[in-house]
C-alpha cells in the first residue's frame, strides 16, 4: 500500500449511515430521530426517549404504558447479580462493577448467549434484551453506591416512574419533583450521540455477529475512560481541587503551565460549544436554587468563563452534569455509571441498527515495524 491516508483516531472519517441521531456542529444541534434533544428533555420522560431511540417514533400513551409495565418487571436487582456485585472489591471502580453485572445479565438471559451461531438474536429478542438492560441498570448503579456507603439495598417502587424510582433506589427517600426533573433531563441528554467511542465499540462487536450483551459490555469499557464518559467524574475532582471561585485564576495558571487537560471542556465534534450544555446548565441552575448552593454556580461560571477566554475551548455535557449529580447526592464515583444507565439506550439502538444492515467492521493498518527478516539458521 503506498502513502495511505491515515486519520488518527478516525477523526473526520464517516464510517456508516445512521438514522438514530444527527449531530450538527455548525448549527450546534443534536437531533434524536429528528427531534431536537432540547425539546425532548423539556417535554418527555426518559422512558419515552428510550422508546423513540429504539423504535424511531415517540410512543403513544398505550405504548408508553406498556414499556413502563415491562420496565417495572425487570427493575429489581436479581439475586445472582447482587451476589456478583458483592464479589467485586469495594475499592474497585464502580464501572468494573457495572461491566461485571451487565455481563452476568447476558449470561443469565436464556436468549442472550448459547450457540455463537445464533447469539446475535432476532430483532424482537434484541429489543427485549435492550429493555431488560435499560430496566435492570438503575438498581445495579444504585446498589453500588449504597454498598460503598455501607447502606442496605432499597427495593424498587412500582408507583414511581423510571427517574423517580432510580433516585428512590439510590437514596431511599422520596425525591423532590425539581430533582426528578433535572435527573430526567440528564438521562435524556446522555442517551445518544452518534458514533462516539463507546457506541462505535458496540457496533464493532455487533458486526462480528456477537450478542447484544457482549456489545454493551464492550461499550461500558470504552465509556470508562476519562476522555469519554469518565470526564463527568473528573470534573468533580477539578472542582474539589479548586475549592472556590476565587481560586480559579491561580489554579488555571498552574494547570495550563503543566499542559493539563481540563476535564469537561472540548469535544471531538463540537468546536463552538456542545449543544447539550445549555439544557443541562438550566437543570444545574434549578438544582443550585433548590439546594441553595450559589457557590457551586460561582465556581462553575468562573472556571468556564476563564477557560473559554483563555483557550477558546467550550464546556461539554460533562461540565454541568458533574456538579448537578453532586448536588443531587450521587458520589463522584457513581457519575460514569449514571452515564451507562442512560447511554445503554443509544448503544442498544445502534446495535440493532448495525445488526439490521451488517457489514463486518474491519479497517486496515499501515505497517511501520521492522522490515521483513528471518530466523538465522
Ligand atoms: N483542556 C486543555 N486543552 C484541551 C482540551 C481540554 N479539555 N481539549 C482540547 N484541548 C487542546 C489540546 O491540548 C490540543 O491542543 P494542541 O493542539 O496545542 O495540542 C487541542 O485542544 C486539540 O485537542 P485534541 O485532544 O487533539 O482534540 P480532540 O478532538 O481529539 O479532543 C477531547 C476531544 C474530548 C478528547 C478533548 O477535548 C479532551 O480531552 N477533553 C477533556 C476530556 C473530556 O471532557 N471528555 C468528555 C468529552 S464529551 C462527553 C463524551 O463524549 O463522553
TrEMBL record:
Pathway: Carbohydrate metabolism; tricarboxylic acid cycle
Keyword Transmembrane helix on entry: no
Top-level lineage group: Bacteria
Keywords of this entry: Transferase, Tricarboxylic acid cycle
Pfam families reported for this sequence: Citrate_synt
SUPFAM superfamilies (alphabetical): Citrate synthase
Classification via PANTHER family: CITRATE SYNTHASE, CITRATE SYNTHASE, PEROXISOMAL
Record's protein name: Citrate synthase
Organism: Microbacterium panaciterrae
